[in-house]
Structure formats: structure tokens, C-alpha cells
Amino acid sequence: MNLESAKQNWQQIDKDIPPLLPADHLEVRWSHPALRALRRQLLFEGGCWSFFLILFYSGLDGDQRPWGWTAALGLSLVLLILHAIVGYRLAGRPVGAMPLYQAMAEQIRTIRRYSWLSIGLRILTLLILFGFLLSYVPALWNTPRLWAIGTIVVWTAVALFIHYRLWRGRINALQTTLDELKA
Q1: Within a 10 A sphere around the Cβ of 73, how many other Cβ atoms?
Q2: Which residue in 95, 115, 114 sits closest to 105, CA to CA?
Q3: What's the average pLDDT block by block, 10 residues per block, for the chain (183 residues)?
Q4: How many domains are there within the chain?
Q5: Is residue 146 situated within a structural domain?
Q6: pTM over 0.85
Q7: At what angle do helices 33-59 and 67-91 cross, to 10 degrees?
Q8: Which UniProt keywords apply (predicted)?
Q9: Does any domain span residue 15?
């Protein structure tokens, strides 16, 4: 066999074997088991937030609280539901036609931005909830009742720390995978 016939055979092989994943297949949203678990989590969290959103007005005496706190709590809960939907769509986003390394690097950048939004939104909602619950406490700023504010600050700091550590672990795992792909 000479060099020219070997080159022709090699070029013919590429035409005869179909690619494992055609480019149009990469544009389709897949039904991965992790996405099903995320969908269940989204439905559960969305249902719980919706249930809380419906009941907080009468169950937590929302009609007797200042209107601003009630509106802020309602808006923050709606934003949490929308945030969960955006997270689900982000997880199921198709790769597209770009190379895998580039697509994964872009996904990590997007997840990093999403994580900061997630942390900020959850901490803001927690603070609004605490403010809503304490908005009807008479003489809150008296010295003996300042322990409530200190407790709120401590719980908020703990929630911030835990949420930050969870996101940092997820992003570090993705970054490790990206670094292995680069090597």
C-alpha cells in the first residue's frame, strides 16, 4: 500500500463513520437524572414558597404589619421562586456548537454569577423575613430586647457562611473538572 492510497482510505473513514453526537443534537435539552432531581426540588421549593406566600398574610398577621414589610416579603418570595426557575434552566442549558472546554468555562462563569445572586437573594429574603416578624414587636430598640437583633445577625451570618461554602464546593468541583480537561 502506498502513501496516497493510505491517505485516501483515511479521508474516506471520516465520511463513512457518523459522528457520535451531531451538532444539532447538542442544541437539544436532555432529560438527565440530575435534571429530574432538580425539577423535583424546584417543584417542592416552589410549592413550599407559594404555600408560605399564600398563608403569611393571615397566618403571620401580615394584615396588621406595616405595608412595606408585607410587600417586601411577598416580592422576595416571588423572586426566590423565579430564582429557582432560572437555576433549573441554567442547569439544563444546551452546550451548543462551541468546543467543550470553552462551553464549560462559560458555564462556570455563569454559575459563579448565579451563585452570588443566589447568596444575596437568600440573605436579603432572610433579613426581610426577620424584619417582617419583628416589625410588630413594641419597644424593640430598648436595651433588653436588643438580643433579638443580635440573634438575627448571628443567624444571618451562619446562613451566609453555609450558603457560601456550598456554592464554593460546587464551583471548585466544576473548576477541577475543567482543569483536568485542559491537561
Answers
A1: 24
A2: 95
A3: 67 58 54 74 84 77 78 87 84 73 85 89 86 72 69 86 89 86 75
A4: 1
A5: yes
A6: no
A7: 170
A8: Membrane, Transmembrane, Transmembrane helix
A9: no
